[in-house]
Amino acid sequence: MPTGFDYLGQDKTLQEHWVKRFVAIVLDALLVYTPIMVFNTVFGGPYFSAGLLSGIVLFLYASLFDFSAGGTVGKMVMHMKAVPMVGEMTLSRALLRNFTKIFGLLLLLDWVIGMAVETRDPRQKWTDQVAHTSVMAYDHKSGV
Question: In 3-state terms, what secondary structure has residue 137?
Fold first, then answer.
């Protein structure tokens, strides 16, 4: 069975998918990190604790939005949503698929491992595979 990298090298739609996912996480990170970093700069405090707090808030924000709305603000802007492969999106699935967002390096590894292993769905990062979820694009006009 091919890996996600095998698909990625040949499929422009898949390449666009991963670019959109990257843009979505950057938007979400800016949405979460900016107020925390501004607060930390104005009122002082150790940078590491603000970084860790931002990662925890990003994890909780992404999990709650994926569970309740199908996606974060970044995903909504990019017309994407997190979906279960079977059944419904549960809070435990949302928490599992997002836990690597606590640390940027973990998220990068999550993406790389997801693309490096054999897969039937090259849109999945590793924690998506474990949680049986994926991220799908939708038509912003019809919602499908």
Answer: strand
DSSP per residue over 14-70, as a string? Answer: HHHHHHHHHHHHHHHHHHHHHHHHHHHHHH---HHHHHHHHHHHHHHHHHHHHHHHS
Tokens at 10, concatenated: 């040949």
Amino acid at 107: L
DSSP summary character for residue 142: T
Q: Which of 30, 20, 36, 21 is nearest to 97 (CA)?
A: 21
Checking if the pLDDT of 47 tops 70, the result is no
Q: Domains of the chain: which residue ranges?
A: 4-137
The two three-digit tokens of residue 72, written as one number: 């974060």
Spatial separation of the C-alpha atoms in residues 11 and 61, rounded to whole Å? 31
For residues 124 and 52, which has the higher predicted lDDT (pLDDT)? 124
Q: pTM for this one? A: 0.89
**Is 80 within 8 Å of 21 (Cβ atoms)?**
yes
Q: What is the CA radius of gyration of the chain?
A: 16
How far lies 128's CA from each of 10, 83, 110, in Å?
A: 22, 10, 9
